Amino acid sequence: MSKVQIKVNDNGSLRITGDVELLDGEGNVYSTKPSFSLCRCGLSNNKPFCDGSHKGKFESQVRVNKEE
């Protein structure tokens, strides 16, 4: 089985790729595809999934803190 990848997109969503189970707060399973995006801005009308509502309204560019 390959490793699940979560990518923090600049000014956008969290892109999830791989075999993962997504649950709501009560443990109910969301139906997902092998690759999907989760909302990070709070503007989506399809939460927890991203619907592109962030475009032009959300800025965040997270980077790994590379300490030496």
Q: What would your notes on this structure say?
A:
With 68 residues, this protein is mostly beta strands. The chain has one domain. The chain is 0% helix and 18% strand. The chain has strands at residues 5-8, 14-17, 35-38. The protein has a three-stranded antiparallel beta sheet with strand order 1-2-3, with no helix packed on it. A hairpin with a 5-residue loop joins strand 1 and strand 2 (14-17). The protein is globular, with a radius of gyration of 13 Å. The N and C termini lie far apart (32 Å). 7% of the residues are buried. The model has no long low-confidence stretch (mean pLDDT 95).
Write the layout of secondary structure elements.
Blueprint: E1 5-8, E2 14-17, E3 35-38
Antiparallel strand pairs: 1-2, 2-3
Shape: globular
Task: Say what oligomer this is.
Answer: single chain
Q: How far apart are the first and last residues' alpha carbons, in Å?
A: 32 Å
- How many extended strands? 3
Helix-strand topology string: EEE
Features of the shown structure:
single chain; 68 residues; mainly beta; three-stranded antiparallel β-sheet
Write a brief structural summary.
By secondary structure, the chain is mainly β. The chain has strands at 5-8, 14-17, 35-38.
